[in-house]
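Continuing the batch. This is chain 6 of the set; chains 1 through 5 are on the previous pages. Same settings as before, nothing changed between runs. Recording input and output for traceability.
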Amino acid sequence: LAMAAAAAQRFAAQLPMAAWRAPATAGRVPMAVRRCAGHAQSGYIVRAREGGRETLRGAFQSSGRFDAVLSGYMECVAVEEGEVRCEIRVSPALQNNYGTMHGGAIATLVDVLGTMALLTRDPARPGVSVEMSQTYLAPAPGGDVVTGIGSVV
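Output for chain 6:
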């Protein structure tokens, strides 16, 4: 966990100051626990709950946590029952040392798109990822626009 926090800090250091928040300090309750406990959230989850699935369309609105890495780079271009389609620009903040989209950014994208797809079915129930697995087939070069589709199966 300490290694993950250090990696997140290094990644966040590449972002504009307004795009990220410092990691939780010792003694704070982890975000996943707060989510399960029903604490208030912000961003796209709250917008969907309050205004329905169409509020997901447009520029991504971060919940102010780790998903903030997608802010300013992702736009939801289509919303349907059980499915969202988003485009994300592979900016320098989302790139690894090889100039391609970082695997952690891809995993975050997969997680967020899954949540957004769930919100199109029931805006009051965003869900929580309990297991994820990605297989990377080809790199997404810096500057490219990647299209991601989240769907409920």
